[in-house]
Amino acid sequence: MNKVIFKKPTAILLLVVMVISTALAGCAKKDTTKNNANTGANGEFDLNVQVGPEPGTIDPSLNTTVDGATLINHAFEGLMKINDKGEVVNGQAASYTVSKDNLVYTFKIRDDAKWSDGKPVTANDFVYSWRRAVNPATGSEYNYMIEMVKNASDIMAGKKDPSELGVKAVDDKTFEVTLTSPTTYFIEIAAFPTTYPLREDVVSKNPDTWATDPKTYVGNGPYVLDSWDHQAKMVYVQNKNYYDVDKLGPDKINFVLMDDQNTILSAFKNGDILFGDDLPSEEIAAMKDKGLYIVGQLGTYFLCINTSKKEFSDPKVRQALSLALDRQYLVDNVAKGGQQPADTFVATGLADADANKQFHDTATPWYDLKDYKGNIEKAKKLLAESGYPNGKGFPSIELSTNPGHEAIMEAVQNMWTENLGLNVTITSEDWNVFVETRKSGNYQIARHGWLADYNDPISFLDMWVTGGGNNDAKWSNKDYDALIKTVKTSTDRNERYTAMHKAEDILAKEMPIIPIYYYTDLYLKSDKLQGFYSSPLGFKYFMYTSLSK
Amino acid sequence: MAKYIAKRIMAALFTIFVAATITFFLMKLVPGSPFTSEKTNEIAQAALNEKYGLDKPIYVQYGKYIGQLLNGDLGVSLKIQKNVPVTKIIEDSFPISAQIGGLSILFAIAFGIPLGCIAALKRGKWQDGVIRVFSTAGIAIPGFVIATTSMLIFSINLGWFPTYGLDEPSSYILPVFTLGFYPMCYIARLLRSSMLEAMGQDYIRTAKAKGMSVFVITFKHAMRNSLIPVITYIGPLVAYTLTGAFVVEKVFNIPGLGRYFIKSIENRDYNMIMGTTVFLATLIILMNLLCDILYKIVDPRIKLTK
């Protein structure tokens, strides 16, 4: 007996080690190359950047995220593309013509446009992709981007067959699109990922998984996905068949997939990545002049009032709530991301009728941002006129939000309580739950944010038409609806923009929403990285970058 | 023994089934959908629900899922890695988590047991004091503090280790240290107290009286009885640690399984929630079984057939 005893603890330890090493078996390391240099072997330019976490999908028809679009833009190219000045220029199209009634667009595809496997890009690749996007079976959430194409809405609703979509391959290199109504921003849509061409022979073989495997991810863009280590990195190499391959910068782009803000900042500070798309908000001040860039984004952060609730049916109440906010304070002391206080709904950065001017600059401000004291007086007066002097008798307000926005909501709560004497509570729900709560109208006032899909103010204003899918304010106004209809059908630029300004003035009077600030896009970029640009929609472009010494 | 194990395996299968059922219905009770989006496209959402069978009544969905599960099919991810089979995601990420987890358990045992022994043997002396303060601190400090602090010091200030990923052997050091630190301290404390208890037993006094050396008394007699609580602790610890730790994987950007537990719930990625839960449940049950068998080896007085 005695002999055996001593062996047993050893046996136990051995067993534990065995269990663990079994778990370890087969964990051979895949990649042992040093990763933190931005120049690879043989003096190659290997660029490490971070634009987002593991993407849910990089299928151009299915993508819904900005970082997903950045990844797609490096592997695909549409008829049009965005250049470093933010202009829409010819991409796969060599030229295009528009019919006199502005309904038929005819694109000539470049002769040297090729797929990454060497086959030529044809008009049929576009026909296939556009039909796939509107086909309900595909489940494309951004297919409304091409709803102006003839029959698109009916096909999406399952009333017509995808083959009836108003697109046609006149010949191998001529792609023709017919629209339902003239759409001035259609050319910009032709630069959006949902419209990128797809290879029918590749996609139809594995419709659900072709975009999850680098082997079948055939694109027509400047780079090709070479390997994908899930949750770690995606490696893109130059597409030798791309027409502009000689001008490309990095030999290799490593998109490092990260979602922790602190980790992104650490990797950037350490020089492991030369670009990071996020950082902790408390580090914003410290990173100024150290690689932090704050650029405009086509989006507005606002509060949405449920106008179907009795207590908010009087526009005076809504006006009062809006006037009682010190937006400069919210931006400077709470949000702290270089945001711009908002005095209208349509964000800055969108062009006006005169393309050299901004829509925001010619719009009538909804209130005077600088006169906070005067605004409070007005707010008190309006609330009293509405029958609630000093907030007396007004029901308690519940402010709904999702995690991450509590600080701003608390500041709003404080301002309403101090300035108007209102009783305000805050509820925070999980993102998925919150969005459904807001959509179903089961709230009083909720946080909201809107980012444009294209550079046209209608992308914002369309939100508030009666019964619209995104009209969470449940607001309705006949004059507004009529103006939006004019905007959507008119081809006269001046008439459209005049109508949009008028529509926005109605919003200002009725105040179903309370603008707070215009979004900014924050990113970290090393001084060494040259030739980088981003689009107003927030897409990032690394294909023409270089390293300075 | 064989009969016992067979019985236990049957019970385990039943437990997994119950766990899967409860998770399934709880998950469906939570509001929200994987296709929730700020920009409403109701038609596309309806199409997606239909495509993934979410438009069917819950009991139909449940029946279908259990049927799939019996065939070893966990379905495809709905959101996180759209359309990729859940089994493939687990296959890809589990080895990475298991590698980090296994190393950190080894680290915890390799340092925790000697520390516990020393503390017990030197009870009341300065060695004991130092180890006690150290291990109490280790249990009190949350993992993310250790992770970010060690990254700040060793990766950014000193530049010894990379900030993210697992591309170099040196990238393993910080995650393994962070993940193994808590169990190491816990094991040291556990072993110290159970060893002190064992040292006070009659049989130890007898051994001392017989003139045995301290080494033999400690490792041959006291240690064996003191290991029971440690084994009880290590069993589930192995399951939890091998399946990945959310904090460590997020901070050091390690492509492991741990992050999916949280991410799949946030995204309402139903198949991923089910897949990761069933996988973790299976592993825990296996580890508990293994632990029970280990008890028997350590202490023959324990009867397995109870």
What's the β-strand tally of chain B? 0
The unreliable regions of chain A are: 1-11, 17-37
First-to-last CA distance of chain A = 74 Å
The outline of chain B comes out as flat
Radius of gyration of chain B: 24 Å
Largest sheet of chain A: 7 strands, mixed
Total of DSSP H or I helical runs spanning 4+ residues of chain A: 17
Average pLDDT taken over every residue of chain A: 89
CATH topology of the domain at 86-298 in chain B: MetI-like fold
Topology summary:
The complex is a heterodimer of chains A (549) and B (306).
Chain A lengths: L1 H23 L21 E7 L13 H10 L4 E3 L5 E3 L2 E6 L5 E6 L13 H12 L17 H5 L10 E5 L2 E5 L7 H4 L10 H4 L19 E7 L3 E6 L13 E6 L3 H9 L5 E2 L7 H4 L4 E14 L9 H9 L3 H9 L4 E2 L17 H4 L9 H14 L11 E5 L4 H15 L3 E5 L2 H9 L5 E7 L6 H4 L16 H12 L3 H18 L2 E13 L3 E2 L2 E2 L5 E2 L4 E2 L2
Parallel strand pairs in A: 1-10, 14-15, 14-16
Antiparallel strand pairs in A: 2-3, 4-5, 5-7, 6-7, 8-9, 9-10, 11-17, 12-16, 12-17, 13-17, 18-21, 19-20
Chain B lengths: L1 H28 L12 H10 L6 H13 L15 H36 L4 H15 L2 H15 L15 H27 L2 H8 L4 H29 L3 H6 L6 H9 L3 H29 L8
Give a brief description:
Chain B: Belongs to the binding-protein-dependent transport system permease family. Chain B: It is found in: Cell membrane. The complex is a heterodimer of chains A (549) and B (306). Chain A has helices at residues 2-24, 66-75, 123-134, 152-156, 186-189, 200-203, 261-269, 284-287, 315-323, 327-335, 359-362, 372-385, 406-420, 431-439, 458-461, 478-489, 493-510, and strands at 46-52, 80-82, 88-90, 93-98, 104-109, 167-171, 174-178, 223-229, 233-238, 252-257, 275-276, 292-305, 340-341, 397-401, 424-428, 445-451, 513-525, 529-530, 533-534, 540-541, 546-547.
